[in-house]
Predict the structure of MFS transporter.
Amino acid sequence: MIARDRRVLIVAILASFVAFLDGSIVTVALPAISAELGGGLALQQWVVDGYLLSLGALILVAGSLSDTFGRVRVLRIGLVWFGITSLACAVAPWGSALVLARLLQGMAAALLVPSSLALITSTFSGAAQARMIGAWTGWTGIAGIMGPVLGGILVDTLNWRLVFGLNVIPIAVTLYLLAGLHEPGRTRPAAPLDGWGAGLAALGLGGAVFALIEQGRLGWSSPIVFVPFIVGVLAFSAFLWWEARAPHPMMPLDLFRIRNFGVGNLATVGVYAALSLGFFVVTVYLQQVGGFSATAAGFAGIPATVMLLLLATLFGTLAGRYGPRMFMAVGPVVAGLGFLLLRGAVPPIDLWVDVVPAIVVVGLGLAITVAPLTSAVLGSIPAEQAGIGSAVNNAVARVAGLIAVALAGTIIGAALDVAGFQRVMVVVAGLMIAGGIVSWLGIRTPAALAAPERPE
């Protein structure tokens, strides 16, 4: 028998792992997908952003569901739905069908991420919570970066469709372990779902993302581009207005008045926008410009994976002991310097000289950053709001990545080349460093850690 605490951690890691893995594993398959289904850069962006769009728009509703109906129940539904939509992605006969399946898959992922992390924050407290968040962060962060490795092997040796079909295995294992966890059906009295908020958020994000992706093909002067953009901006503004007045908001704006929560989410914007855009472009660049196979491009991310695996729990523990501020300030700057080093990856590219050392630096920066960032944000709010707090932070991260990837075409230009790649690396580094500066200026060490211990 597995002890309950260990089972909670394993379930939380596996449930989030499949969601994060699927968000990244597809990146290395994008050239193969567009070669078979057509669509060029626009389809590649939509395959990534379709998933992030529904995930970012609905993750807040999912956080409320987690707090209302229980983490275990919501996780079970999300896992089954994720398995079904993964199979739909695997058999998609054309590009639009794949994008639709990815949209539905992102909805399922929205149920998994906040519930899995809330399961940890509601089970553990204090230093143990920080340590478990560190372990969760390390493994789920690894999923985001090891995805291209696994995807590359599948694309080169078998077929890109198996990138999606592979999800069935970890989902089955997680459902089996989840059967041994029990909790009350509701963790608080049921509250009405914020349907208006969910609708406005989806419309706002969808309109803006559609415009940002399609403007590269149609231009900003096209009404097909600027009308959805205007509608998106207005809808998102209305979303913020509604959330400030709704009786049961899916994103309680009062949470942002808690200093570490608000500042931590602002830092999250920079860090996760940089992370999503950076690895998206690097993976495609190594294949389409560098001439590497999908497997080689995927393996280029292994050093970052190793750094996260070895160090994320350590820095999560240190943040629990000394406070997150220093780590959240230093880590993004280190990662930003790593992305700047990648500007030297000019054909003919030597992976061991031009790419691997820079990825090691990026991985070190992420290992220093991610667990303390998560701990700072979620450790600042009451335990009964763990689900919605986790959902808000994850929504901020996914939306930041969503917008960043949608902007890829604007930064790169008509086609990905060396100059476009270098521009992206500068932008990514700037976003990372900005996240570090925001953390240094705004994050505060919790009073319990800042106070010196009294001698007994």
The chain has a mean pLDDT of 84. The CA atoms of residues 289 and 417 lie 7 Å apart.
